[in-house]
Every structure is written in C-alpha cells, then in structure tokens.
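ok so I'm stuck.
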Amino acid sequence: MKRIHIFGAAGSGTTTLGKALANELPFSHLDTDDYFWLTKFTHMREIEDRKKILKEDLLKYERSILSGALCGWGDSFKPCFDLVIFLWIPKDIRLERLQQREFQRYGNEILAGGSKQEQYEQFMEWASLYDHAGIEVRSKTLHESWMEDLTCPVLRIEGDYTVQERVKIILEYLRLNEKRSN
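replied:
not stuck anymore, here's the structure
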C-alpha cells in the first residue's frame, strides 16, 4: 500500500482524518486544497498547474495520503491509488461542523454586515446541496459516480464516527488486507 485517497463532502472530516492517519502510518499527508487554491478559498489555481504540482508531490512522497476531492480536475490520478476511503456523515452534523469551522476561520466577519457574510452564505448553501444534488456540483451523486470505475478497493465509512474510530477502522482494514495478500 503506497497511496491512499480520502474524500467526501465538505465538513466530512477528510483532512482531519488524513492528518491523523499519517500520524499512525509512515505516510506523508497531502491535501487537495493545497493544489486547488492559489490563495486559500478565494483564487483557484489553473487546472494544469494543480495537476503538475500534485504529480510532482506524488512522485516525491512514495507513501502518501491525499485528502479532499479530485473529481473533475484530478480524474487522471485515479489509477495512482491503492485504496480510496469515502466518508459520509449526516447532513445536520456536517453543516454544524462547517458553521463552527467557518466561525473559527473568520469570526464575526461571517455574521450579518460582516465582510465575509455573502461568501459564507454562498458556501453554506453550496455545502447543503451535497446529499441531494446531481453531478453538476460536488455531491454524493458525483462522488458515487466517480468511484464507479476505480480499479482499487473502496472503503466506505458512513456515519458519525470520531477521528479515532475512523483511524481504527482503517488500520483494521489494512491489517486484514495485508494478511490476505500474504
């Protein structure tokens, strides 16, 4: 096992899990936000630049865990992964996490009259679409479609688990599959 990809909806915990898993395994943690954004959450990097930088890092780090979504712009990386982990949590829990995260990032600027209010409201509206939208946006439907032609195993972790519980599930999965392949 050399490359693991963890993805799911915004607020599902992909980055947090990627970091925690990298602390347990001899893997480097990479996050798609670092490739997608030129300036975090305001200016997108050109697609070809994202791909080039990600490819360089995947070559640089022999064992890596990539968290975050690649759908659309990073489809060419699908064959690179030995395991894909899909995270899903109930919408109400996910949106509450996102509200807390955004408040920690921007404070009162997301409240009425704040400089980030409009951006925050648009982001939350977009995030709320995940469970019922079609493939035209980052949605569960798009993610399910993206997983259909993966050649590697997919481990689905669906439900409200703690980070530690998720890490335990993954380590157990890896241990069992290590035994099967020997």
